[in-house]
Amino acid sequence: MSTQPVLRLEAVRKTFGGTVVLRDVDLEVAPHTVTALIGASGSGKSTLLRCANLLEEIDDGAILLDGEDITDPRVDPDTVRRRIGVVFQAYNLFPHMTVLDNITLAPRRVHGVPRAEAEERAGELLERLGLGGKAGEYPDRLSGGQQQRVAIVRALAGRPRLLLLDEITAALDPELVGEVLGVVRDLKDDGMTMVLATHEMGFARDVADQVCFLDGGVVLERGTPEEVFGRPREERTRRFLRRIVEAGRL
Fold first, then answer.
1. Pairing of strands 7-16, 60-65
2. CA 79 to CA 28: how far, in whole Å?
3. What contacts 247, CB < 8 A, 6 or more positions away?
C-alpha cells in the first residue's frame, strides 16, 4: 500500500490585497487519515481548504494531490476537482431540485455517469446516511442536519479521493450537530481521507489522526490529538485551548 501523502502543501502562501492569509504553510495528509484544522476565526483554515480545491489561486508554493502538482498552470482545475469532495457550512443545495437530482447532477454532467448508475449510488448513500426516504423531497422540506447530510452525500457521489469539510456544523442548531458529526465518524471508519476545519474541539480530539493549530496564517503547532490538546508546546496554542476550556467547548 502506498504511503505517499494524498495531499501535500509545500510552502503555500496566499495573500488578499496586502494581507498575508497563509504564510509558507507545509502540510501532509496521509491516506485514510483525518486532519483537523483548528484555530480562531480568521486564522486561515477555510482559505487553506479553498486553496486545496483550487477555488483560490495560491501566490507561492505548491499543492500536490497524490504526488501531482495541481497548482501547475498546465493542470485543468476542473479535472482536479473531480477527485476532491467539498462540503461547506452553507449547504448550497439547489432549492428547485429534489434531493436525488441535487446528488446526481455532478456525476451525470461532470463525470458522465449514466443516470441509472448515478441514481443507484445516490440511493445507496442516502440509505447509509439515514436519508433513504428523502430522495424525492426538496431541500426546504428537510431539517438543517438532513440538508447537511445531503450535502455530504453529494460530495461522496463522485467517489472522491479526498474530502474537505469546512465548518460543516457551524450553521446547525446544537441538537443537530451530533447527527452530522456521526456521519463523519462513520466515514473515518470507512477509511475516507479527510481534512476538516472545525470549532468542535471535542470532536477533533476524538476523531482526528492529526491536528494542526493555525494562527495568523501559520501552522503554529501540529501533532496527534494527545500532543496538541494534552501537551501543547506553543504558548499561543495553550492560550487558545484555555479559552476553549473556559467556554466549555472541550
1. antiparallel
2. 21
3. none
Secondary structure of residue 242 in the 3-state scheme: helix
Question: Using one digit for the tens of pLDDT, what is the confidence trace for 193-234?
Answer: 999 999 999 999 999 999 999 999 999 999 999 999 999 999
- Structural domain spans, the chain: 92-160
* Average pLDDT over the chain, rounded to an integer: 94
Sheet with 194-197: strands ordered across = 84-87, 162-166, 194-197, 34-38, 210-215, 218-223
**Cα 56 to Cα 132: distance, rounded to the nearest angstrom:** 35
pLDDT in tens, 140-197: 999 999 999 999 999 999 999 999 999 999 888 888 888 889 999 999 999 999 999 9
d(CA 9, CA 13): 10
The answer to whether residues 64 and 8 touch, using CB atoms and an 8 Å cutoff, is yes
Say what the pLDDT of residue 171 is: 81
Nearest to residue 180, comparing CAs of 159, 162, 164, 203? 203
Look at the pTM and tell me if it is higher than 0.90.
yes
Residue 209 to residue 32: CA distance in whole angstroms: 10
Closest CA to 181 of 189, 229, 212, 85: 189
Task: State residue 174's pLDDT score.
Answer: 84
